[in-house]
Design a protein that fits this description.
228 residues; mainly alpha; elongated
């Protein structure tokens, strides 16, 4: 195998997880809900103490991430989401409503990701293309567009699964079960989705495709203006 072929092969097989990351963020996001449930249980179903535990846990995570050099914006957004969830639960007086934002965000995500495939702007391609600094060049490669579209459906299923699990538990007011489901369907599910969607993505590409970092551009002679 030549050096160029080896480079192309390594690029094509590049792990989707290495490009997307995300497990650390998923782990961080699962800790405040756990803190809420624990605080709620220990304080005899006090939403106030549960909210305080969740916000306190989110602050500690934020301080740790900032000390590790992470972006302030990401930390603030994460903290704001926890505070909003806590305020909703405090306002309604129902502990399960701490998970309402999570439920609604997964409904929205499932719809947005599905719509992105339908309109031929699969969000997985948008995210990976942005991470690789390609902007929209990947869309001019039919093989990549098709592969990203197929792999994006795996992400749609992830959000649908969460809605199917969270919805009935929220409706029934099963706070502890919601906390458990929130943990199980966070980083373990994200890791599985990244792995499966990566497999779908690479299997959908032709064997001779140069890889995610090298979108094929259409032949100039095939462009309409070239035939005019």
């Amino acid at each position: 195998m030549t050096d160029s072929s080896a480079t192309e092969s390594a690029s094509r097989r590049e792990s989707l997880a290495s490009l997307l990351g995300g497990r650390r963020g998923a782990i961080d996001a699962s800790l405040p809900p756990v803190a809420f449930v624990v605080g709620w249980l220990l304080a005899d179903h006090s939403i106030g103490w549960g909210a305080a535990a969740a916000i306190g846990g989110s602050v500690l995570i934020g301080v740790f991430r900032l000390a590790r050099g992470h972006r302030v914006r990401a930390v603030v957004v994460s903290l704001a989401a926890v505070v909003a969830a806590a305020l909703i639960a405090l306002h309604t007086g129902r502990a399960q409503d701490f998970f309402l934002i999570q439920l609604l965000s997964n409904v929205a995500s499932a719809l947005i990701w599905a719509a992105s495939v339908v309109v031929r702007w699969p969000l997985l391609g948008v995210v990976v293309g942005f991470a690789l600094g390609q902007r929209t060049r990947w869309r001019r490669d039919p093989a990549l567009l098709r592969a990203y579209s197929l792999a994006s459906w795996v992400w749609v299923l992830q959000y649908v699964l969460r809605v199917v699990v969270f919805g009935p538990l929220w409706w029934a007011g099963e706070v502890v079960a919601l906390g458990v489901a929130r943990t199980v369907l966070s980083w373990p599910l994200v890791a599985l989705v990244v792995a499966v969607s990566g497999g779908v993505l690479y299997r959908a590409l032709p064997k001779d495709h140069p890889g995610l970092r090298h979108p094929r551009q259409p032949d100039v002679s095939e462009r309409p203006e070239a035939r005019a």
